[in-house]
Structures are given as C-alpha cells and as structure tokens.
C-alpha cells in the first residue's frame, strides 16, 4: 500500500512539473515569435526583443530612426529575418541587433516566405521577389484585409482567408491563384490553416446549423472533407505544427491534436488566465515558445513526447561549424573553436550589441580541421558580445558574456 501511495505521489509530482512557464518577457503583448541560430525573437506592440538564453533575459533591439516600435510579423529567407512594422519592412542578415529598413510599405500584415519569395496579408495579398524592396498585389485574391494564413502542401501554396472567401491555391509560386472551396459548403470563413503529416487542416466557421468546423484535405487543397466539429469553446486559431502535433488556441486556451485535427486535448497547464490570445509559436532547441497577449511562455517539447523536429538550424552546412566559446561567461579570456572541411579563407570577428566591430581574431586562409582561438577582452566592459565566423557565403554567429 505504501509503495502504491508513493507511486501516485510520483505521478502527481511529475504531472505538476509538466506545464508552461513564463519567460523574462512576461508583460508585453507579443504579436509574433521567431528563432534564428539559437536566438529567440519577439515582435511586440512596443518594440522588438531578442533573447540569447532561452528567454531568461530579453534585450530590446534599437530600430532604425523614425521607425515605430510596433512590430508585427516575422518571415525568414535563408539566414535573413524580416519583420513587418507600422511603417514598412525591416531586415536583419546576421547580426541579431542590427536591423535596416527595406521599404516603407507594406505596413503590418501577416508575413510568409516561400522559396525566397515574401508574401504579406495586408488589404489583400502582396508579393515580393526582391526581398521586400518592391511589392506587387496579387490580383486573383480579393483585396480586403482578412487576416488569412498560408501553408505549403506538395507543390502548392495554400492561402485561407475570412469574409466567406475560403481557400485559394497557387502552383506557380504565388503568381496566379484559384479558389478551391469544394467540400466546404458554407463554411468558408477560414480562421487557421496548416499542413501536417501529409494533409491540410483548416479551422472554419460558420454554417446555418452549427459553427467552428474542422476540415481536412488529402489532395493538396483541391477538395475538403468535414472531419469534426471543434471540441473546444471558441474558434481554433494560430495553428502551429511540431512533429506530428498540431497546436491551436481558442480565446487564450491552448489545444493539441495528434491525429490531423480529428480530436483535440487541452494543454493549457501553467498558462496565465490573463492571456486572451496566443498569437504565435516557434521552437528553439528542444523548447516550444508561445507568444501571447501576456508575454512569451515556454515548455519542453519532451512534455508532449516530441523528439523529431527539424528547424532552420538543421539546414546549416555541415562542412563548417562554430562552437560555443568556453568558458562562458568569461573574464577576461575565452577560447573559440571552429571546424573546416576544406582549406578556406576565414574571417572571425567580435562585435558588440550595436554591431560595432571590437576585435578581429582571424582574417586569413586556414587549412581543414579544427582550429581554436584565444580571445582576450581585458580592454572591454562587461556585457554580451557576438562572434561571427565567415567562410565564403557561410556566416555563423554566436553570443558570449563578458562578466568582470
């Protein structure tokens, strides 16, 4: 009997530990979150923030002059990260704290990238093939702000929008679109859309007899089948796919499906009851992050049994690598190790958080193999510094902390 009670206590203790926890950004209205090479970004109504340590601390990024602090949505092309603001588009190439203005329009809107092409949902859909410098409206999609969402299924880009317009498909990288509502009936107000495990899943409303219906497509959006009435209070939005799981929120409550949207379970444990909406998700390492109306929250992917998730970091070239410095934090010396598979010209530099170069550690050809450099920061003040490895077109940046 004692062993049985101990077993129950251990289960309760384990379950209690599996819950969401707030990060240091615990008071901002977060519109979107994104990740790049271990850094966590948050676009908020009052500025752009970055964390280098999984959310234990956030730093506000200094934006270009005359740029409003309102930041809305992220999109990535390679290592470049774009963000929409109240007055156009900003881009960061390699330095997390250096952002430059690309254009003054479009403003706000939901960003999406596909094969080097940017899309934004703002008074209809606009498309850019030159990294946001110029934009062209997509004439085949109605020009009304709809808060729509994009997904990719096979060879098609899929766009779901509200106001009864439904689903649009493109087979030519977003130049031309055709409406594809077969099977949706009158449920053509699309609130969220995603591609997961070989199928498309859409959250819709409203039909004459009931509302909030989940639809699924197994043919890249050509036809749709009703699979379930949403088993939650409210309309599921903000779909995010991690492994074989789909996450979605309804009025600040978080749900998860592992069977393509057929059934959903509440995974809200630990989230503040003050949260009115969960707007976005991203993954850094083995942790899932959620941007909400009350800050950024996090939870280990292992809590959901998710172990096989590929992020953008998985696409980095394997022939070059830059290791984390050691020791870190350091005072005043630290070691930096990097690896090359071929003889290459190498640049290894150190920058402060304003993007100013403070040291050049390597600027010459190096042979293949593992190399180690000692960095002495005796003349620098305490703080966070970035060290950047450049080998041909490959650029990799890491952070280190000088603590005197």
How does this structure look, described?
This protein has one helix spanning 2-17; strands at 21-22, 30-36, 39-44, 47-51, 59-60, 71-77, 80-85, 88-92, 100-103, 110-114, 117-121, 125-128, 136-137, 149-153, 156-161, 166-170, 178-179, 189-196, 199-205, 213-217, 225-229, 237-242, 245-250, 253-257, 265-266, 278-284, 287-292, 295-300, 320-322, 333-340, 344-351, 357-366, 369-376, 383-391, 394-402. It is mainly β and 404 residues long. The protein folds into two domains: 21-313, YVTN repeat-like/Quinoprotein amine dehydrogenase (Methylamine Dehydrogenase, Chain H, 7 Propeller), CATH 2.130.10; 316-402, Immunoglobulin-like (Sandwich), CATH 2.60.40.2550. It has a four-stranded antiparallel β-sheet with strand order 1-28-27-26, with no helix packed on it. Strands 2-3-4-5 form a four-stranded antiparallel β-sheet, with no helix packed on it. Strands 6-7-8-9 form a four-stranded antiparallel β-sheet, with no helix packed on it. It starts with a helix and ends with a strand. The relative contact order is 0.11.
């Amino acid at each position: 009997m004692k062993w049985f009670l101990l077993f129950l206590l251990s289960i309760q203790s384990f379950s209690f530990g599996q819950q969401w926890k707030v990060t240091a950004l615990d008071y901002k209205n977060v519109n979107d979150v994104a990740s790049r090479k271990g850094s966590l970004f948050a676009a908020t109504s009052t500025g752009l923030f970055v964390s280098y340590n999984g959310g234990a601390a956030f730093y506000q990024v200094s934006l270009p002059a005359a740029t409003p602090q309102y930041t809305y949505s992220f999109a990535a092309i390679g290592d470049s990260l774009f963000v929409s603001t109240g007055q156009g588009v900003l881009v960061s190439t390699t330095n997390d704290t250096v952002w430059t203005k690309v254009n003054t329009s479009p403003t706000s809107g939901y960003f999406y990238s596909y094969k080097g092409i940017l899309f934004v949902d703002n008074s209809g859909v606009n498309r850019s093939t030159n990294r946001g410098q110029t934009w062209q409206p997509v004439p085949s999609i109605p020009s009304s702000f709809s808060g729509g969402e994009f997904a990719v299924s096979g060879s098609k880009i899929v766009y779901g929008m509200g106001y009864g317009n439904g689903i649009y498909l493109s087979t030519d990288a977003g130049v031309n679109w055709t409406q594809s509502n077969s099977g949706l009936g009158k449920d053509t107000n699309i609130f969220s859309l995603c591609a997961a495990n070989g199928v498309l899943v859409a959250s819709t409303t409203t039909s004459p007899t009931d509302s909030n219906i989940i639809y699924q497509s197994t043919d890249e959006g050509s036809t749709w089948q009703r699979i379930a009435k949403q088993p939650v209070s409210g309309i599921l939005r903000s779909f995010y796919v991690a492994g074989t799981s789909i996450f979605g929120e309804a009025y600040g409550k978080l749900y998860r499906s592992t069977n393509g949207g057929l059934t959903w379970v509440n995974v809200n444990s630990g989230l503040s009851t003050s949260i009115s909406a969960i707007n976005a998700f991203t993954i850094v390492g083995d942790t899932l992050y959620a941007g909400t109306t009350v800050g950024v929250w996090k939870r280990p992917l292992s809590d959901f049994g998710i172990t096989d998730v590929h992020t953008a970091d998985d696409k980095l070239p394997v022939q070059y690598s830059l290791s984390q410095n050691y020791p870190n934090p350091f005072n005043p010396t630290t070691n930096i190790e990097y690896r090359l598979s071929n003889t290459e010209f190498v640049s290894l530099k150190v920058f402060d958080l304003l993007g100013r170069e403070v040291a050049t550690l390597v600027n010459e050809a190096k042979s293949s193999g593992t190399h180690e450099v000692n960095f002495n920061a005796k003349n620098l003040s305490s703080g966070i510094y970035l060290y950047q490895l450049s080998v041909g077109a490959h650029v990799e940046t890491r952070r280190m902390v000088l603590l005197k």
